[in-house]
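Input chain follows. Return structure tokens only.
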Amino acid sequence: MRATGRQQGIATLGVSLGILLMITLGAIYTGQVVLRGQQVVNNEYRAAKATLAAEAGLEWGLAQLSDGAFVRTVIVDTNSQDGLVDSNTFQAPAGLLPADVGFNLTFSNPTVGNLKLLNLTAVGCADGCSPCTSACPIRRTSRMQAQLSSSLFPAPLRSAITVKNQVTLILNAKVTNLYSNQPANDRTVWSGGSASYSNGAGTVGADGTHNTASNDPTTKANDTSLSSATVDQFFKMFFDGTPAEIQPTLTNITCGANCNSQLAGVTGQALWINSNLVLSGANTIGSPTSPVILITNQDCQLTDSNVIYGVLYCRNLTGTGTATKVTTVYGGIIVQNNYNASKVPDVVYDPAVMNRLVSLFGGSMGSGVTRVPGGWRDFP
């Protein structure tokens, strides 16, 4: 009986140990499943954060493309002039994202020579890996395409007056440059033909120095890059398109004997004038904060005491005035053929007016960038 009892006890103990072992193994397995599940959740969470960081990079890049200054600085082909956007990588600005995530963003163009259709590629990183590089273990990449719209006036003029052929200033007609720190490549007068000043006419620097010699250092004459250009090429030096491309995008007006009634008091507009641009009297057109762009493929005739803030583009320009009546242009004048000024106009290159023109009409026109439909894709 005792042997049988001991045998039963041993059997019971064996069964109990077996059950305990099974329970232990089950608990270990369950723990492993839970741990692996938690790891999967954590990985998915970190991957989601990296994906959101990448998409934040795309949104940041899209916003930058709405800034004309950014476009003119970054979306350029200067390194090798191979028709491709210069290589640049942008990291997430400090404070834009939580400290444990980041992104890097690059711009490229899929079509050689077309810098308006752009690929944006953003790589998002998580787990505090900064800067976001290929060494970061948790990365996600998002891509999209964006289309820049054409701008009217992409950059400030390089000179107060720019003339494809000849410049003639007589009888105290002046061209003033208020740019106190003028870049070396910029000029007060820039012409493809000769530049002649006589009878007190000439240029005036920001320091007030009056230069009456046509070979003064702020005048660049006989530049073949201007004189040899076609009309379309010359126009595109200043505007983002040919005359045929730009004209339909602007408000078109036609003047009668003069443009006084149509233009007096106009501010902050870009107009295409389908006639000679004749101004007489004492009209004020534009303002320092709301300058204008006036384009005509015919001639400009300026007389009397007009004040214009902005840029004029003319086929030819003639100006006549008196000792007491002088038209002044604060901004710049572009002439497709010849510029002849007798007393008027006085042209004042004002950097503040130029910068305001670019702000109003330049870069991407403030909001001229759109996401190409279907161009957003996320990759693990």
